[in-house]
Amino acid sequence: MDKISNRWRSQIEAREATGTFRQQRQPDRRVDFYSNDYLGLARSAEFQEKLAELAQTMPHALTGPSASRVLYGHNSVVASAEEFIAANHNVANCLLVNSGYNANLALLSAIAQRGDTILIDELVHRSVHDACTLSVATKWKFRHQDLGHLETLLNKANGNSIVVVESLYSMDGDFTAIPRVFALCQQYGAGLIVDEAHAVGLFPRGLVHQYGLQNDVLATVITYGKAFGLHGAAILGSKLLCDYLINFSSPLIYTTGFNAFNAVGIREAYQYMEKNPALRNTLCRNIAHYLSRLSVVDSVQHSPIQPVKFPHIQLLHTAVRGIEKLGLAVYPIFPPTVEKGTERLRICLHAFNTVGEINELCKEINKWKQ
After folding, report:
1. Which fold has domain 27-43+277-367?
2. Which residues form the Aminotransferase class I/classII large domain (predicted)?
3. Reduced to 3 states, what is the DSSP secondary structure of residue 171?
4. Where are the chain's structural domains?
5. 18-30 pLDDT tens trace
6. What burial class does residue 87 get, using C-beta atoms within 10 Å of its C-beta: 0-12 exposed, 13-18 middle, 19+ buried?
7. Which residues are CB-contacts of 288 (< 8 A; sequence separation ≥ 6)?
8. CA 160 to CA 115: how far, in whole Å?
9. Most CB atoms closer than 10 Å: which of 49, 82, 99, 294?
10. Same fold yes or no, 27-43+277-367 and 58-274
């Protein structure tokens, strides 16, 4: 036991020494420029009140299912929500999953066989990398957004090939040219999976749907812990895909089924966004205003995720302290989450941020980027 504890201690001390030690944080009264609550649903009193009203009318949905979805842990409330989500995204089927991380584990650990090849963008979410370790297929990484490199690997790949990308990347805030990736996959007979965790909600049904490819890709993963202000995720695809996962995906089979009231909340969030399109318009204006106020821009993407890169960790920590003294909450990102030398602030813009708050943030960032 002492040897194990000492190893943990030495690894923690190493992180403390390099300024990369992480701690849990709770929200405070500072202005939020860090969370994924892009449209402000998680903090919306109106949305919260609606959920409270629903809880009063269906208290039976508040408790857990107490079993796997294949052992009576599925119910009519969740099934109805899955049908609603599938119809909303114009796909055949939907499986609600407890988180986006679990959705990627459930999907990628099961769909490829020995001798197949999974090709992933090197900057996809950690859950995709971890899911590939559970798969018996070969995993190859291609350089970020480099379709030439992807094509080279597709040429060499054995068995069935599956390509995995994000539509909107969580650290660089850049968008994938999904139609181009899909065309390349078609050329080589590969399946395409798109993780839409950060895009769905910003684009009402995600970018895959916006491009009209929702029934052409192998699967789409969407999450509800970001723009939807809730928790959970969904795998969208064909009935065959969902039947296959229910029968062969260990992370889906050997876990408790989806909470019914969370399914109710997700359905309500879709309807709330539909009634409040101004939230997206306000967010778009805030992004444009932010980009217009910076003297040096590390991203030209019209995205709510805006990286501000620093040459080393010490300068990044100093900048964070200066910004937080102004009552603005930001979050530093450092290795191993991002590559060494690309340490950054990950600025998240929201519909609820004011022009004055954005001006103050940009003024302080400009001091450090000159």
Report:
1. Aspartate Aminotransferase, domain 1 (3.90.1150)
2. 31-365
3. coil
4. 27-43+277-367, 58-274
5. 777 887 877 778 9
6. exposed
7. 302
8. 8
9. 82
10. no
- Which bin fits 165, alpha (ψ -120 to 50), beta or left (φ > 0)? beta
- d(CA 173, CA 38) in angstroms, rounded, equals 13
pLDDT tens profile 267-306 = 999 999 999 999 999 999 999 999 999 887 777 679 999 9
Q: Which fold has domain 58-274?
A: Aspartate Aminotransferase; domain 2 (3.40.640)
Nearest-CA neighbor of 225 among 201, 203, 206, 209?
Answer: 201
SS3 97: strand
First to last CA, the chain: 51
Q: What is the per-residue pLDDT across 169-205, written as a single tens digit (0 to 9) for each?
A: 999 999 999 999 999 999 999 999 999 999 999 999 9
Whether cis (ω within 30° of 0) applies to the bond prior to 336 is yes
**Residues 6+ away with beta carbon under 8 Å from 81:** 96, 263, 264, 266, 267
Q: What are the start-end ranges of the H helices in the chain?
A: 2-18, 45-57, 76-88, 100-108, 126-134, 147-156, 178-187, 207-210, 239-248, 250-253, 260-275, 278-293, 313-324, 355-369
Measured CA to CA in angstroms, residue 280 lies from 47, 276, 350 at distances of: 16, 8, 9
pLDDT band of residue 370 (cuts 50, 70, 90) is: low
Q: Count the residues in the chain.
A: 370
Question: By the 8 A CB rule, do 128 and 195 touch?
Answer: yes
Residue whose structure tokens are 């060499």: 156
- To which residue do tokens 């990736």 refer? 181
- Taken in order 173, 174, 179, 185, the sign of the CA dihedral is negative
Residue, of 180 and 67, whose pLDDT is higher? 180
